[in-house]
Amino acid sequence: MCRWVAYSGSPLLIDDLLYKPTHSLIAQSMHSTLGAETTNGDGFGIGWYGVGDTPGVFRSVEPAWNDRNLRELARHIEAPIVFAHIRASSGSPVQQTNCHPFRYGRWLWMHNGVIHEFASVKRDLALAVDPSLYAHIEGSTDSEVFFFLALTLGLEDDPPGAVARAVGLIEEIGRRHGVEHPIQMTVATTNGSSVWAFRYSSEHDSRTLFYSTDVSTLRELYPELEVLSRASDESRLIVSEPLRDLPGAWNVVPESSYGIVQSGQDELHPFTPQAPSRPIAVPALS
Amino acid sequence: MCRWVAYSGSPLLIDDLLYKPTHSLIAQSMHSTLGAETTNGDGFGIGWYGVGDTPGVFRSVEPAWNDRNLRELARHIEAPIVFAHIRASSGSPVQQTNCHPFRYGRWLWMHNGVIHEFASVKRDLALAVDPSLYAHIEGSTDSEVFFFLALTLGLEDDPPGAVARAVGLIEEIGRRHGVEHPIQMTVATTNGSSVWAFRYSSEHDSRTLFYSTDVSTLRELYPELEVLSRASDESRLIVSEPLRDLPGAWNVVPESSYGIVQSGQDELHPFTPQAPSRPIAVPALS
Amino acid sequence: MCRWVAYSGSPLLIDDLLYKPTHSLIAQSMHSTLGAETTNGDGFGIGWYGVGDTPGVFRSVEPAWNDRNLRELARHIEAPIVFAHIRASSGSPVQQTNCHPFRYGRWLWMHNGVIHEFASVKRDLALAVDPSLYAHIEGSTDSEVFFFLALTLGLEDDPPGAVARAVGLIEEIGRRHGVEHPIQMTVATTNGSSVWAFRYSSEHDSRTLFYSTDVSTLRELYPELEVLSRASDESRLIVSEPLRDLPGAWNVVPESSYGIVQSGQDELHPFTPQAPSRPIAVPALS
Amino acid sequence: MCRWVAYSGSPLLIDDLLYKPTHSLIAQSMHSTLGAETTNGDGFGIGWYGVGDTPGVFRSVEPAWNDRNLRELARHIEAPIVFAHIRASSGSPVQQTNCHPFRYGRWLWMHNGVIHEFASVKRDLALAVDPSLYAHIEGSTDSEVFFFLALTLGLEDDPPGAVARAVGLIEEIGRRHGVEHPIQMTVATTNGSSVWAFRYSSEHDSRTLFYSTDVSTLRELYPELEVLSRASDESRLIVSEPLRDLPGAWNVVPESSYGIVQSGQDELHPFTPQAPSRPIAVPALS
Question: When you count CB atoms within 10 A of the terminal residue's CB, does the N or C end of chain B come out lower?
């Protein structure tokens, strides 16, 4: 399993996000308190939007806590949307192509959780990826295949619908292979304008997910927190575990729901997987 | 493209194979003279048979020429069969899971060459891998998919036949995608007893491959070469380019042929790809 | 701080030492229970004696728990003396040259602990290293400088005396710089025949160190432990924390003492640092 | 030896500097034409000035040609001063702390060349580094010790004078150790406002160094080069070998000289090492 942070708001120095908070993602990389594992040392990645058409991605196989390049970049990159992820491998190799966030065009994707018995269902899931996208899969994780399924099923046009269809497909194929609870997930995805975050698991006992209270309320609660004075009112954090112990600052994303952080009013909705409308023909070896 | 060396014979210190010769594989990693690229710095790997049921494999993403661990291991590991490979990526990421030799059970496999337009044919080839083997593919190279196709088509029972069928399949699928010359290859594979080495390309203009003259002749030619005094008469090297400039020591493996290095008389045969006997149904997205 | 294991005895597959025990060093790399840190993910190293004049050393900056090469080597290397070390950096960079064990000629050295305020005393300590040895210091750790001080002060002829003199020197220079408790240490060193292990700290509150009960007693206590049936009577383990929870198997190395594991009777003695006999002239910038 | 590029001018996307030119530094990493080695694959680094008080530094041990993170950063970082360096180790380990540019406070430093017989003179040179700076030396290269000597001898106040004194010291100590030609160098250093570049060697046969013709002239010569339309008139490149084959674009920095790229008129001066005014007392082991 893993830990992640998604930020959207006024341009933020990545250092303020990753290193400054008491229980920052970097601190969590060695001592997570809410994660399935306490140590998340199997690589990490950050994604951000700046110059250029596509987001920048920096990924490394070293533990985040001792990566000097990450510290350098954090002190020199400011961005309005930042994704950061630390990995605890559930078996697949520790290599850059298995580090989150994954990118396709302007889209970023990161995942905490697991597709259970992935070795059994991997081929069927990979077959369901659009043939024109198949060769873009570079790594060997369940999370990346999940991303390409969502892209196949319309992520760029309708993120909540596409994720619902992808999860429905994963559950259908998993159950066909005898997996009782095929998926466990918190997911964040963005196109550089809005951020979508999902919390769901087949057993309805999902990993934790939190979003931050709006900034104007936070400023009243914590006038001494300097970073808040620089944050716009629309700034928002979504995190797998709180970055600081601040009463009133963090709200639980409810079980089986998803949120949209966007220009204007943010939204929170129930999330329901959508099973494939027709049987999936799984081709055998010809 | 890449460079490789396969050794079979009396137990040899890997150092004698990889570092001692004038134009050793390590020297070739920086200055190959016969390769498609002069620099082969995109990772390397060695495989050897020793204690344990399966061969040992050591792979790294660093250039071989400055990998201190490789130098250490070379000085401390002796083995009767050694595979060594240095990589020049034709596009896929530099990561351990893309380094040769690949292993499955007792088998090792390494490849110099390319499946042309691999991004176009990758999905079809991966689909042709036996479903029970599919999840064992860990990296993203053409070479590893080629290995799993050979395993699917009988490598463990009939190596020359399985490779002929795998190449036939690759050519069939490539041509269906409009690729004129689908494959370029020299390949070595072993089960720890015998070594099979293949030289072939669809355009019949294959990368170089050489095998060493038998040891007793070499000893007469080069009495001053100390390593020969320790080598058994059956010791044999197969290399993508000669390790030393020794007249009479190296013989060209002819175009479109394969050799077997084994206990008893070694063999050299023509190699002909074998097209699939019935049409391959390539499943589309269901 | 760090965790380490030293083995001496009948040839042992490194796998049996590093992976098989319940609370193996690899398990400790993620969840140490007695260490100053629970996570020891800042690189690792192993050293062993086999073919060749000098011991082999394999060191890597990856966490030990996910290093595939370490797992491979562990399954293929057997040796009568094995050192293994996992690192939790106390500040110096994570790089191979900072990983233990360190080697000089036939000697290996590994250290758990710290020279306090090393940045302040580093120059004085480095100056005390024999000029002919100075350029052999490759990394930037306190542990390596400590090793070269011991070499300077006679390690190859009289290990206990040399370590006593090195610790005396470190304490003298530390106190001159106002450091109350200059050193905290458990150290193991070997020449390939005997192993010396030290437990000491200036504040007399040293990190834990244990040695295994003799094998014949262990076999009586734990007849079901298969690895014991293959171990010679003289086999011995020295560890910074026990590898299994086996009552009667582990004995505390007392505070301020050192042990010798050797052919014949092993020994345990008090350890007392030996202050330099004459003032150390610390040269300033000329 | 190595290859490097220093840029100063209007903010430039690093991609335009490192990847776009025909014979870019990345191309040189595999096929340098003027370097002492054709392959410069032993790590690389970039330094740039942006947000934050100190320059950002990104260094990696991978060959530059296949480092995906470098490509990402190049496409997302713009800066008015950029240093980039690719390394061909002359023996010291390939590790981040040995990669250029080195940084101290606001200063960056990179070096192509060698202090000959460094192992012999390393201790004496390190002793000449100011004791307060000594512990800041993190790696094991001659180039970093050279940087700290220059800092010791006044780099921050008088860069040309400090480099002249550092080179004088290196020559004095080298000759005392019987080294005929103690140093070979091209060096670039910057404080974020001006850039100083030096070309010198004890044998007066220095590695190549070039500076670009002023931008207004270049625009007249090459109106089709789009990058020039975005460059300010004061933009300047200093390179160890030309990035494109453009007649009239590159001027040789003469043997034994140094240049200053600064706001206002750039300057070019002769460079003469300055021997220490009084004998250097080299302390022995006390």
Answer: C
CA distance C93 to chain D (A): 8
Check if A43 contacts C (Cβ < 8 Å): no
Name the amino acid, one letter, at D74: A
Q: Closest partner residue to B51 among C13, C57, C69, by Cβ?
A: C13
State how far the Cα of A271 lies from the Cα of A209, in Å rounded to an integer.
14
- Average pLDDT of the segment spanning D118-127: 96
ipTM of the complex: 0.91
B-C CB pairs within 8 A amount to 49
SS3 for A110? strand
Q: Rounded CA gap, A81 and A99, in Å? A: 18
Whether the CB-CB separation of D13 and D78 falls below 8 Å is answered with: yes
- The span from the CA of B121 to the CA of B107, in Å, is 25
Q: Does D72 contact chain A (CB < 8 Å)?
A: yes
Instruction: Determine the pLDDT at residue D150.
Output: 98
Nearest residue in A to D73, CA atom: A56
B177 pLDDT tier (thresholds 50, 70, 90)? very high
Nearest-neighbour CA in chain A from C161: distance (Å): 36
Q: What ranges in chain A are assigned the alpha helix state H? A: 14-18, 25-31, 68-74, 118-127, 131-134, 142-152, 159-176, 215-221, 226-230
Judge whether A66 is closer than 8 Å to chain C, CB to CB: yes
User: In Å, how far are A179, B197, B203, C275 from B269, measured between CA atoms?
Assistant: 49, 10, 19, 75
Q: What is the mean pLDDT of residues B32-46?
A: 84
> In this predicted structure, what is the pLDDT of residue A286?
41
Does D132 contact C at CB distance below 8 Å? no
Cis peptide before A101 (omega within 30 of 0): yes
Give D59 to chain B, closest Cα distance, Å.
15
Number of cross-chain residue pairs from A and D with Cβ atoms under 8 Å apart: 48
Quickly tell me which residue has 């007893």 as its tokens. B193
For residue C149, give the chain D residue with the closest CA: D285
D278 touching chain A per CB within 8 A: no
- Cβ proximity of C115 and C92 under 8 Å: no
Cβ C84 vs Cβ C46: under 8 Å: yes
Q: Cα–Cα distance between B129 and C102 in angstroms, integer?
A: 46
Would you write out chain C's pLDDT as a tens digit for each of its 286 residues? 689 999 999 999 999 999 988 888 888 888 888 777 778 888 999 999 998 889 999 999 989 998 999 999 999 999 999 999 999 887 789 999 999 999 999 999 999 999 999 999 999 999 999 999 999 999 999 999 999 999 999 999 999 999 999 999 999 999 999 999 999 999 999 999 999 999 999 999 999 999 999 888 888 888 888 888 888 888 999 999 888 888 888 999 999 999 999 998 999 999 999 998 866 655 544 4
Question: How many CB atoms are located within 10 Å of the residue C4 CB?
Answer: 28
- Burial tier of D264 (Cβ tally within 10 Å: 0-12, 13-18, 19+): exposed
Q: Could you say which of D97, D123, D140 has the minimum Cβ distance to residue C131? A: D123
pLDDT class of B166 with cuts at 50, 70, 90:
very high
What residue type is assigned to position D276 of the chain? P
Which chains contact C through at least 3 pairs of Cβ atoms less than 8 Å apart? A, B, D
D93 CA: distance to closest CA in chain C (Å):
8
Q: 0.90 cut: is pTM over it?
A: yes
Query: What is residue D35's predicted lDDT score, i.e. its pLDDT?
Result: 76
Alpha-carbon span D239 to B148, nearest angstrom = 47
Q: Which residues of B touch C52 (CB under 8 A)?
A: 75-76
**CA closest to C136 among chain D residues:** D119
Identify the residue among B1, B66, B94 best suited for mutation to test binding to D, counting D beta carbons within 10 A and taking the highest. Answer: B66
With beta carbons under 8 A apart, name residues in chain B contacting A93. Answer: 95-97, 138
